[in-house]
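Question (not urgent): is this output format expected?
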Amino acid sequence: MSVTSFTNKLNLAYITSTILLAILVGTMTVDILLGDLSLVLGNFSWAIPLFILMVIIYAFIQYFTIQTIRKNNEDVEKRNSTVRRVSLGMYFFQYIIISLLLYLTGSMLVRNSYDTSLVMVLIGMSYAATSIIFAMLSLQFIKWYLANRNFLVLLYFVVTIVISFRIIAIIPFYEDLLASVPVERSAESLVPEYNPEIFLNNIYGISSGVANILLWISTSLLLKHYKKKIGNIRYYLVMVVIGLSAAYSMSDFVLTPAVESYFGEVEYWTFTAFQGVLSGIALGIPFWSISIALKNSSKKISYYMLVCGFAFCIFITAGSAIIDHSPYPPFGLVAIMCMQLSSFMLFTALYSSAISISEDIGLRNIIRKNFKEQADLLERIGFAEMEEELLKRTVQISMNEANQMYNTTGIQSTVNELELKKYAEEVLQEIKDTSKT
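Got this back:
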């Protein structure tokens, strides 16, 4: 495949993924909103056709996303058996999820009801798959950290392991709550009384808060690495968004009760439905900003950043879906099913992005170390005689190291030869200034 053909395919994947994933986020938002409002509005005539449409949208976009990611991640899969196994497992797992969702919709069309146990199985499968994928992602991060000692990679290890344990802990509480609803759910079934202050909400809220804090910190560090490419104005604007969003996500226990006390039930549930998607969009903005900044210089990492942004957006949004009252039809279920898709997106895109940043830092460290080792020689012989040769040799060493890293991981650095040379010149100037003092 020619470079031009490969670039065109990446551009097409970038544009198509942006449109489809934005549609998926919109679908999830409507799904969660209807699930929450079902406690107030009850059943309506077009509910089942709308639910079927959401299932179709979810199935198509999930299939397209998994196929596109696997295609763009072939180099990594060839070199990393864990990535290859997760990718293949997710490819087959999606068919099981889609088949069960189709069976559920068929049951509503034929019997005018569905089995609550099937909803419990679907939620359990989605949460279990998500937890396993995050656990395997954390294992990849700790392996890389032990080999390269990069703090950002270590921080993402902590984030992913916290999320994995949080999801495992929430499964039994969710299953217990759904056990209180009728075994067979229909439009005539009584809706169980819902209490927003139940233990599940508190556990999930606190654990989500801890995970969110770690996510905001790690995202800020990642954004800082691309400060020059993003530009100062955009960088500080995004940092403000991160700060405001972090404060907003931490104020859940304050804002939600306030809205409940001052407004009616419809306003309250509308507010809670949009909390997740707004936090998700805010967390996606830094990654989308980086993606735009890298679009011309490093298209593959730009695509990974795009996927990361949507993955976090989908994950946070899916985490806000609650269907413990098992509405008819089960609005909110499609949003929860998106959780394992977001975890797979993060497994491939976040891992590749974090490793790429680690490689960039490693290349810069090689340049700085090489110049420092030659500092005494430069002072004895003179900068003028050695400068050009040393610059050329140091950049070549760095490029060889970058190629070696790519051969090992299948992940490309975002730093090109011109940027390495510019950084080498900056380090060399620092050594000159130091020698004069």
